[in-house]
Amino acid sequence: MRKEDKGIIISQLADTVKQYGHFYLVDTTAMDAAATSDLRRKCFKAGIKMVVVKNSLLHKALLSLDVDYSPLFGALKGTTSVLFSEVANAPAKLLKEYKDTNPTLKAAYAEEGFYVGADQLEALATIKSKNEVIADIIALLQSPAKNVISALQSGGNTIHGILQTLAERPE
Question: CB under 8 Å to 115, separation ≥6 — which residues?
C-alpha cells in the first residue's frame, strides 16, 4: 500500500471517530465470511457502522486526534473490527447476543470513558445515553411538581367549598 493511500485511510478513520463519538474495538478473528456478513447486517439494522481496520492505521488515526486514546492501544492486536455508533450502548447490546462466541469485545470508548477487556461488556450495555439521563432527570423533577399540583387542585375544591359555605351563611 502506498504512503498516500495510508494517509487517506488514516484521515478517513479519524473523521469517522470524530463523527460518531462512541466506538468499540471487536475481535472478529474466528468469524467466517457468513458470520461476518450476518454481523454486518445486524450492525446496519441497529444503526452501527462496522469497519474492519488495520491496527497500525487505526493507531495512527487515534494519535492524530485531540483525545488521548492511549488506554485502547493495547487492544490493537489481531483482527480488529471497529463498531461506530451514535448511541453508546447499542454495540454492547448487539455483542451480548453473541455471548461467549466471536465477535468479542476488546475495548471501547463510550460516553467519554475507556472500557478495556471483554468483562466490560455488561457495564457498556447498561450505560445510559445523555438523552436517557436527561429524560430520567426530567421525570424525577416532574413527579414532585405533579404531586403539588394535584394536592392544590384537590384542596382547591375543598377551599372553594368552605369559602362558598361561609359566603352563603347568614350573618
Answer: 105, 107, 108, 109, 123, 124
Task: Indicate the residue type of 24.
Answer: Y
User: How far, in Å, CA of 24 to CA of 88, rounded?
Assistant: 9
- Categorise residue 128: left if φ over 0, alpha if ψ from -120 to 50, beta otherwise: beta
DSSP at 166: H
Kindly report, residue by residue over 19-68, the tens digit of the pLDDT. Answer: 998 999 999 888 888 888 999 999 999 999 999 999 999 999 999 999 99
End-to-end Cα separation, the chain, in angstroms:
102
Is the Cβ–Cβ distance between 86 and 24 less than 8 Å? no
Question: Tens digit of pLDDT for each residue in 129-159?
Answer: 777 778 888 877 877 766 666 655 665 556 6
pTM: 0.74
Q: List the beta strands (DSSP E) in 7-164.
A: 22-27, 49-53, 80-85, 104-110, 113-116
